[in-house]
Amino acid sequence: MKNAVGREIPDKLLTGGKEVYQGKFHMDGKAYHKAGPVVRRAEKPQESKVLGSIREACEKCGAHDGMTVSFHHAFRNGDYVTSMVMKVLVEEMGLKDLTVATTSLGSAQDLLADYIEEGKIIGVQSSGVRGRIGEVISAGKLKTPAIIRSHGGRPRAIETGELSIDITFIAASSADDYGNASGTGGKNNCGTLGYAVADSRYANHVVVVTDTLVPFPNMPAAISSIDVDCVVVVDAIGDPKKIGTKEARVTEDPRNLMMAENCARIMAATPYFKDGFSFQTGVGGPSLAVNRYLEDYMRERGIVMGFALGGMGGNICDLMDKGLVRKLLDTQDFDTKAIEHLAAHPDKHLEISTSEYANPANKGAYVNKLDFVVLAALEIDTDFNVNVLTGSDGVLRGAPGGHPDTAAGSKCCIIVTPLVRGRMATVCKKVVTVTTPGDCVDVLVTDYGIAVNPARGDLIECLDAAGIVHTTIEALQEKAYSLVGEPDELEWEDSVIAILEARDGTILDVVRKIKPVEL
Amino acid sequence: MQIETMAMAGTLESSDVQVTVEPGTAGIELRLESSVMNQYGRAIQKTVLDTLKRLGVSSARVQVVDQGALDCTIRARVECAVFRSAGISDKNIPWGGVVQ
Asked: Closest partner residue to B70 among A394, A423, A488, by Cβ?
């Protein structure tokens, strides 16, 4: 069946009430029962929940073939715990048919690619699929299609019971012997543990893995001991220095800075840019760089940002320290500065869960209060559909993250991207995979010009009034093709290797196995 | 133009293409690798073959390792490799002739 973004979704995936994407807010008002975990009572006083090893914890939690385990990715490329635990499950305990439901996957979890190839891991549910894992899934080696969800879609799937987790393993920078766990106060800090909160409340078994055991009570704590079955102490849970690599980088590239400056100009030209406005940036170079230009506009107007949302980097913390931001609502810390800032300012730099952040199935996620979001894209097409998941070779190498959530929730969603990257036309006729539907995207900023979604006549008027030159997205696409040539359409086999869920749980797109080119 | 010796032009940098030509026996034998194969493999093949034809090269073994180069780059690298092979890359480049 064809969905609202024109993608053909195989009927065999539309079972058990699964629907195709039917436009933003289609599920609004729909009632559902929240799922609940199976909880084993710990009524008899126990002095400590600390166990001797990961294996012991797995055995206590009834690890078995065919189960679903989960992890968070606050340590990003510096994460040790996912691989450490999977190695115990697969190599020490000999378990098979496992499903791994992480908040994201990257090169730190390359080991899992081996287990996928060996058929030990048969399911992957994640936001990001990068590195070798992306390659083996794209090659059709995962037994079931991977399920890709946004950061808001994941807690939605957990709370509605679509994603049921047998055991979650939560890497925590500090924990007490009862399981109160935090991303700060340890020797390897990741900052907020917002990704792991839903898992801690809805998984049947919760294991806290820490390298810094502190006296009870370890509070305030994102993860409450009332949800924790056991605690395991390991040598190191991750390397915080590797959080800020690759995806989250600050740019000095003048082209990126020019685009970032234009984003700030556009924001300042809208009626939403007033005292108390709210803002989020993605982690791409130009989008992160918008922060530095906002400062001038805020000072000029004498206004202060009410809150910044989502992932935090040092630059937004700087803005707060200059008195230009009142609150930071933090789901992920992208660098050591943000990690330290979270710990140092518990009154205004606040840890939030991804359900609070972006879950479309709760009673109002914070993205709905967002004025502006500035996001990157691998591709954007003339319908304003964005792809942040698949490369132009059809291989999984990205992550929707909070992209679709913030785009849908915000009043003004700006996509910033160079027109071409090498020979790849970023602005194209049809994106490889739709990860954020075009009805949620408002403005496109490229190095060759700006385009506004025609659905947003109000924003077009704002830009015109401010003297900001803009063109059509078709003109930008034609310019891109005139530089790099018109790309051939990718050719696919029939088999689906990944299902891309819209944030509301409908199917937005599928990724099929790419067919090699024959010349 | 005759391919006389093995010659190479271009690099393996991003957005460049490395072209190697060698004397061949049976027409043009092209081996192509590209980081943008799925979307531009056919276009690159056509650009390479068209350029060789324009230069009057009818027999050669050609290896192209592309890192997402634009068409103009591909043409220039093929021309340079051929001229180096024919020993005319230092002087007597046919500016205004086959090189437009």
From this structure: A423
Interface contact B20, partner A, CB < 8 A: no
Q: Which residues pair with B66 in a beta bridge?
A: B17, B34
Judge whether residue A273 has pLDDT over 60. yes
CA-to-CA distance for A475 and A461, rounded, in angstroms? 19
Nearest chain A residue to B31, by CA: A519
Tokens (6 digits) for A223: 């993860």
Q: Is residue B28 part of a domain?
A: yes
Mean pLDDT confidence for A380-394: 95
Amino acid, single-letter form, for residue A86:
M
The distance of A515 to chain B (nearest Cα, Å) reads 9
Q: What is the pLDDT of residue A251?
A: 74
Top-level class of domain A254-493: alpha beta
Phi, psi values for residue A139, rounded to 5°? -80, 0
Q: Give the CATH superfamily of A49-242.
A: Glutaconate Coenzyme A-transferase (3.40.1080.10)
User: Kindly report the CA angle at A430 between A429 and A433, in degrees rounded to 5?
Assistant: 155
- The answer to whether position B91 is within a domain reads no
Q: Do A423 and B32 touch (CB under 8 A)?
A: no
Asked if residue A339 has pLDDT above 50, the reply is: yes
Which of A35-44, A86-95, A99-108, A247-256 is the least confident region? A247-256
Break chain A into its structural domains and give their ranges.
Answer: 49-242, 254-493
Specify the number of domains making up chain B. 1
The pTM is what?
A: 0.94
B42 in contact with A at a CB cutoff of 8 Å? yes
Contacts of B43 in chain A (CB under 8 A): 485, 488
- The whole-angstrom distance between A493's CA and the closest CA on chain B is 13
Residue numbers in A near B36 (CB within 8 A) = 392-393, 422-424, 487
**Is some CB atom of chain A closer than 8 A to the CB atom of B71?**
yes
Cβ-contact A179, A225 below 8 angstroms: yes
Which residue has 């954007």 as its token pair? A380
Percent of chain B at pLDDT > 70 equals 100
When pLDDT is cut at 50, 70 and 90, the band that residue A246 belongs to is very low
* Higher per-residue confidence, A209 vs A131: A209
Identify the bridge partners of residue A71 per DSSP, sorted by sequence position.
A102
